TrEMBL record:
The gene is gmk. This is Guanylate kinase. Its EC number is 2.7.4.8. Residues 4-182 form the Guanylate kinase-like domain. It comes from Phormidium nigroviride PCC 7112. It comes from the Bacteria. It holds the Pfam family Guanylate_kin. Keywords: ATP-binding, Cytoplasm, Kinase, Nucleotide-binding, Transferase.
Length: 189
C-alpha cells in the first residue's frame, strides 16, 4: 500500500466530516473516498455504493471472516468497515484515498498502515456539536444520545492524531485541511 497515500479523517459524529470530505472531493480530483460497508439502515437520500454499501449483519460477518475488511468497528449499535477493494481501486488509480471512519477503526489503520496520515476533526464547542447532530434531522433521539456518549470518548483521543482541525467556519477548516495535505505532499511522506 506504500504506493499511494492513505488519509484517515476521524471526529465525533455530527462534527462535519462528511460535509468536509464532499467539498474536498469536489475540489481535488486527486482524492478518492473509500466507501464503507455498514449494517446501519440508509438515511433518507443516502445512495447505495455512494454513501455506503448497506449490508445485512450476516453479510458483514462473512466479510470479516473472509478478511475483506482493512478495519472494522461497532458504532452506536451498528457495524462499519473499510473494504480492501476500495483501497486497492483508489490506490490503483494513483489517487490519495480518504477513509472517513471512527476512532477504533482509525487505531486499527494506524497499526496496519503506519504511514497513513491521520487527522482529527474537532467541533468548536460541545453545544455546537449537539446542535449539528440534531439539525441534521436524520437520527432518532436514542441514536443521538449514543453518538454523544461516543463523541466524548473520541474527543479525548484527539491527541493521538497527527493533526487536529476545528470545524468552526467550514471554509477555514477546508483551507486548513488543504494546507495539511499540501504540506504532506511537499515533505514527500
Ligand atoms: P459527520 O459526517 O461528521 O457526522 P455531517 O457532515 O453530516 O457530520 O454534518 C453534520 C451537520 O452539521 C450537517 O447538518 C452539516 O450541514 C452541519 N455542518 C457541517 N459543518 C458545519 C460548519 N462548519 N458549520 C455549521 N454547520 C456545519
Ligand atoms: P454514520 O452512521 O453517521 O454514517 O457514521 C457513524 C460513524 O461511523 C462515523 O464516525 C463514521 O466516520 C464512522 N464510519 C463510517 N464508515 C466507517 C468504516 O468503514 N469504519 C469505521 N471504523 N468507522 C466508520
Amino acid at each position: 500500500m506504500k504506493s499511494g497515500k492513505l488519509i484517515v479523517l476521524t471526529g465525533p459524529s455530527g462534527v462535519g466530516k462528511g460535509t468536509l470530505v464532499r467539498s474536498l472531493l469536489n475540489r481535488h480530483p486527486k482524492l478518492y473516498l473509500s466507501v464503507s460497508v455498514t449494517t446501519r439502515e440508509p438515511r433518507e437520500g443516502e445512495i447505495e455504493a455512494q454513501h455506503y454499501y448497506f449490508v445485512s449483519r450476516s453479510r458483514f460477518e462473512q466479510m470479516v471472516e473472509a478478511g475483506d475488511l482493512a478495519e472494522w468497528a461497532q458504532f452506536a449499535g451498528n457495524f462499519y468497515g473499510t473494504p480492501y477493494f476500495g483501497l486497492k481501486q483508489g490506490i490503483g488509480e494513483g489517487k490519495w484515498v480518504i477513509l472517513e471512519i471512527e476512532l477504533e477503526g482509525a487505531r486499527q489503520i494506524r497499526n496496519n498502515f503506519p504511514e497513513a496520515l491521520r487527522i482529527f476533526i474537532l467541533p468548536p464547542s460541545w453545544e455546537e456539536l449537539e446542535r449539528r447532530l440534531r439539525s441534521r434531522g436524520q437520527d432518532s433521539e436514542t441514536a443521538i444520545a449514543r453518538r454523544l456518549v461516543r463523541a466524548k470518548e473520541e474527543i479525548e483521543a484527539a491527541g493521538e492524531f497527527d493533526f487536529q482541525v476545528v470545524n468552526d467556519d467550514l471554509e477555514v477548516a477546508l483551507k486548513k485541511l488543504e494546507s495539511i495535505l499540501n504540506l504532506v505532499e511537499l515533505s514527500g511522506n
